[in-house]
Structure prediction request, 298 residues.
Amino acid sequence: MPASHVIRISRRVCASLCLADGPATPLDMALWLAVVGDMAAIVDEPDEDGITMLDGWAVSDAAAVWCHRDTLLAATGQPRLSDLARPFDRLGRTEFTLGLTNPRRFRLWRGWEFDAPSRLEPTAVGIVSGMVMTQTMIHGDPFPVAVDALGMARFRSRWSPLVYMRCLAWLAGAGTAKSWQRSRPGDTVVVTIPVDALHRGLGSGTLTWPGDWNARAFGRGGRGGPVHEDLESVGIRLKTEWVQGRVGLYMQTTGLRMTVSRLKVARDQHKATLNAMAAQGGSARPRKGGVAQAPIGF
Prediction:
């Protein structure tokens, strides 16, 4: 089995997408990446009336994307298309938001326009959220991120995919809310999220308190759990520390400090990606003097 299957998407969606409600698993999120990956790389030229595909997607919240059988299987590690029926079903029943400050909910997957891919017809058209797709496109994003979809499909914790995407976005220089503390982008970045913004910072509307995150994701005291192990498997080292501060007469948890670093293998892969982008005429690395505008919904 291949070690990885990399899909490039915008850092905007990695920094903004939040799970609101539903049964989506890491495999399902990897499947969504496989569905949108090819379309995310196109250059959306306006038609004779000056209207782009993104304009239509934002209005209707529906985007038609071409899906190829081989890509779906390679990104998820599944041997047969029939093995993807349940992941597609779970993905279609899961709701997401962009940032969680906007209450509007989106379903990443709407279904097939006609028939699903098959052995005889390996390519088919699927319908995804148009609004989310507008944030996924890498054209115009100077520093898109490379997500290991196959590695994501192997994660043990359902909370890992969006934390993984957040970490990649921060390393690439994606903006954060003004009330957060953060270091400059690079191979290591430190982000401190206020405790009342955990749902937004970590991409989950269902886990909101430190105890919830420790029990489900970060381990005892936040010192290491399934999320840390999942991210290490895709070349990201994560350290989480709960920040204590005085609130009135008592010391309380006021925030979460996350130190995110690329491991050596991931650094080498990242440099290779940057060199390939530079050779194609794209930007090669984030600016060290600051960060980008905060993502949608922040």
